[in-house]
Amino acid sequence: MFTTLITPAALAAHTGHPDWVLLDCRFDLTNPDAGAAQYAAGHLPGARYVHLDHDLSGDKTGSNGRHPLPTIDEMAARFGRVGVGPGVQVVLYDGDIGMYAARAWWMLRYLGHDAVAVLDGGYARWVAEGHGVTTDLPATTARIFTPAPRAGWRLSVSEVQSGVEGVLVDARSPERFRGINETLDPVGGHIPGACNYFFQQNLTPEKTFKSPDDLRAQWTTLLGGRPASDVVMYCGSGVTACHNLLSMEVAGLSGARIYPGSWSEYCADRSRPVET
Predict the structure, then answer these.
(1) Which one is catalytic: 25, 195, 235, 242?
(2) Which of 8, 10, 161, 202 has the most CB atoms around its CB within 10 Å?
(3) What's the pLDDT band for 126 if we cut at 50, 70, 90?
(4) H helices of 187-273, where?
């Protein structure tokens, strides 16, 4: 069972396996139609496409962030429609760095499905290592997905605003953390008391994840002796925070939680305090 990362070579050995489900998560925050167009132009054999806005997010109210989580029942129904169910190994990929795939990875783990992994290096590495792609649309066999959501894995905005007893980690770039050049949300800055760990620190220059030892060293420095269970992740809209969660799992540091509404939900109420 693969539970964090998988290489193209390991995935290729299971191409066409009836109990493996491959999901293409490519997306572009500035062009929401780009991922579907990329999928139509070529994707891994057998892959189904899942859209960040339509499949991996719920309805927006104007106050719950840019990518609010769907309800438990909605998530279960959507994953079931693309073939996820008991005994299924799920593999997720996006263009290269895994930021969108990590969102789906965390959602499935939160729902109790442990056999889920991100393709390290994504579509780009798959192609670079000589594996084939297709434009054929796969036949999809729906399955019954019975969720078993894990208590305590996610925090609400009220829980965050009342004060996190632990380490609140912002996954956005240092500039956005400081409130500089904010282009996605109406308010710049960060949640008071948060520290910054830009998710791209998890990656090598080749856009694959660093080794478990390197990631463990980075997180251990940030934690300063505190356990992983003290960590609460957030980002702009609950996407790249999942990349940090995945990197901690790769490092063997389990137990961190997430505030999925993240900055876009938090700053929607202008009365909430902000730091820059």
Answers:
(1) 235
(2) 202
(3) very high
(4) 212-223, 240-250, 262-266
Q: Please report which residue ranges of 51-119 form alpha helices under DSSP H.
A: 72-81, 99-110
Helices (H) then strands (E): counts for the chain? 10, 9
Q: Is 235 a catalytic residue?
A: yes
Q: Identify whether residues 162 and 237 lie together within a single domain.
A: yes
d(CA 165, CA 152): 13
Residue 152 covered by a domain: no
Evaluate whether 75 touches 69 at the Cβ level (below 8 Å).
Answer: yes
pTM for this model (two decimals): 0.96
Residue carrying the six token digits 């050049």:
181
The helix/strand/coil state of 166 is coil
Q: Band of the pLDDT at 163, cuts 50, 70, 90? A: confident
Q: Could you report the per-residue pLDDT of 216-238, keeping only the tens digit for each?
A: 999 999 999 999 999 999 999 99
Distance of CA 272 to the CA centre of its chain: 26
Confirm whether 256 is domain-assigned: yes
Per the domain annotation, does 139 fall within a domain?
no
User: Within this chain, do residues 66 and 110 fall inside the same structural domain, yes or no?
Assistant: yes
Can you say whether the dihedral through the CA atoms of 102, 103, 106, 107 is positive or negative? negative
* DSSP secondary structure code for residue 18 in this structure: T
DSSP labels for 27-52? --TT-TTHHHHHHHH-B-TTPEE--T
The arithmetic mean of pLDDT across residues 184-197, rounded, is 93
* Count of domains forming the chain: 2
Report the CATH number that the domain containing residue 71 is assigned in CATH: 3.40.250.10
> Does residue 91 sit in the same domain as residue 200?
no
Range of the domain at 30: 5-128
